[in-house]
Amino acid sequence: MNKKIKILVIEDDSDINNMICNILKNNEYEAESAFSGSEALMCVERENWDTILLDLMIPGVSGEEVIFKIREITKTPIIVVSAKTDKKTKLELLENGADDFISKPFDPDELIARVKSNLRRYLDFSISNETKDNFLNYKDISLNIESKEVMVGEKIIVLTAREFAILELLLTNPKKVYSKSNIFESVWGEEFVCDDNAVNVHMSRLRNKLAISGNKNYIETIWGMGYRLEK
């Protein structure tokens, strides 16, 4: 692992807390202890955690309330480790924000297996969302903000930096009409002085390149107002 996985262990029994931390550290995770609900919430507000292990019977803020408050802050997986084993309790915890449940006494191998399983889902979800955030899509146009690549259907089209910036601007808010001054000041980073030739030329080239698929109607002109993506 390039990045050490950080796990918060919320358990008021110091012997059990130390045992869990040692199990985690022996499996190359970083582990930190919290012994009450209020201390746990301070830790969550202060740092980012990859997984949280939580006992329900803790002093101060209850374990159930801790789950609720953590969910207001982060989507980090919460694995409840508790002697409360009745089905009703488990279902309520899962409905209220917990991701998994381990009954006490627990097997160390099961603990690590559950940690790995929840970590894998959480990290895969995070990476998927980060990847999704890199793309802007409209009809069959796909723009990758990070790699600066644009595809129409299955075809990659090559844009200049300013053509790319214009398309990115339009894709960011497909329903908005952008005036020539909006586009010029956003893309060129200079004050618009009524010379719209630069915008017209770049818009024409962009339209021609997008028309590679045979659809010439990606960008429409709203006369007297500006441009937007065609509905």
UniProtKB/TrEMBL annotation:
UniProt keyword terms in alphabetical order: DNA-binding, Phosphoprotein, Transcription, Transcription regulation, Two-component regulatory system
Q: Which Gene3D superfamilies match?
A: 3.40.50.2300, Winged helix-like DNA-binding domain superfamily/Winged helix DNA-binding domain
Q: Which GO terms describe its molecular function?
A: phosphorelay response regulator activity; transcription cis-regulatory region binding
A Pfam family annotated for this UniProt entry = Trans_reg_C
**Positions of modified residues (4-aspartylphosphate):** D55
List residues of the Response regulatory domain.
6-119
Q: What's this protein's name?
A: Stage 0 sporulation protein A homolog
Species name for this entry? Clostridium beijerinckii
